[in-house]
Amino acid sequence: LKHLAPSLRIAHMTSQERRRLNLLCLHGHGGSAAKLCGQLDSTFLRDVARQDGGPLLEVTCRCVDAPFPEPSRRSDGRQWWRYDQGGRGDRPEDWAEMEVAATRIAEELDAPAEPYDGVLGFSQGAEMVHTIAVLAHRGDPRFSGPRAPKFGVSLSGAVNPGHFEAQGAGGPPEGCVGPRAGPGSSALGWPLLFVGDFATDGWYSTTRFEETLGLYADATRVEHAQQHAVPALGDEAVAAARRFFSRFAAGTS
Questions:
Q1: Contact 98, 131 (CB under 8 A)
Q2: Cα 11 to chain center, whole Å?
Q3: Torsion over CA: 122, 74, 227, 86 (sign)
Q4: Contact of 160 with 167, CB cutoff 8 Å
Q5: Which pLDDT score, from 0 to 100, does residue 85 have?
Q6: Fewest CB within a 10 Å sphere: which of 10, 13, 75, 232?
Q7: Block mean pLDDT (10 aa), the chain, length 253
Q8: How much is the pTM?
Q9: Distance from C-alpha of 66 to C-alpha of 125, rounded to nearest angstrom
Q10: Which DSSP helix (H) or strand (E) runs through 213?
């Protein structure tokens, strides 16, 4: 099931230059495609698209549902994979589920006639954004080539350490001796817009956010104080996000 949000267009469409972006969007744990698209329309992407005297930014987001059900909070809730420790942990209960989710996203990236410019994720969906970055860095064919997204956007999410610990990710099973080799500092070259409440997110610690940021060589950091949420942005944060997006938006007249 896919939900195509209306393109976010600024009023006063005259002869002024317009810039277009096409984003694939991934919801959080227990969320849904419809819910995330509604949140983006009313907060983050609404703010990024608003007029600031520069080129008009037109954003289209296609939100997709995760492959697994998670109905504990809402009947239509979905998840990209189950967390361990009965849902209270921060690693996958079953590594294979993260692989299924990665393949699901890769299939969606390959589906449209016009490739996506970038991938945006919130919470567990943002963990999948970092999954794409890690797998692309390793040369995974699902996330390389001409249809690979040019950038990622992480809203209240961090890289999942399961990538470095799971047997299928090049490391030993949890509790067994062996190398655990994750990306080094600034090793991920994929451009990233990292948006989060570093002080009071409530789900991800400040340390986990900082460690995730440290993996990227080309990261734009935008902070807010709205805890674990798809945030509304103030003027300074909007300017930073627009500068990031303008690097990848196609121009039209």
A1: yes
A2: 28
A3: negative
A4: no
A5: 84
A6: 75
A7: 41 54 95 94 86 72 95 91 85 86 95 93 97 90 92 96 60 58 86 98 96 96 97 93 90 55
A8: 0.88
A9: 9
A10: helix 206-214
Tokens of 229: 């949420």
Contact 137, 190 (CB under 8 A): yes
The position carrying tokens 């890289």 is 159
Alpha carbon separation from 171 to 135, 137, 166 (Å, rounded): 14, 16, 5
pLDDT for 8 equals: 36
CA distance 151 to 133: 9
Both tokens of 9, joined, read 């267009």
- What's the pLDDT at 183? 81
Rounded Cα distance, 152 and 127, in Å: 11
* Pairing mode of beta strands 192-196, 219-223: parallel
Polymer length of the chain: 253
Give the separation between CA 78 and CA 67, rounded to whole angstroms. 7
Asked whether the beta carbons of 4 and 38 are under 8 A apart, the reply is no
3-state secondary structure of 113: coil
Phi, psi of 124 (to 5 degrees): -60, -30
Answer whether 106's CB lies under 8 Å from 98's CB.
no
CA distance 201 to 204: 6
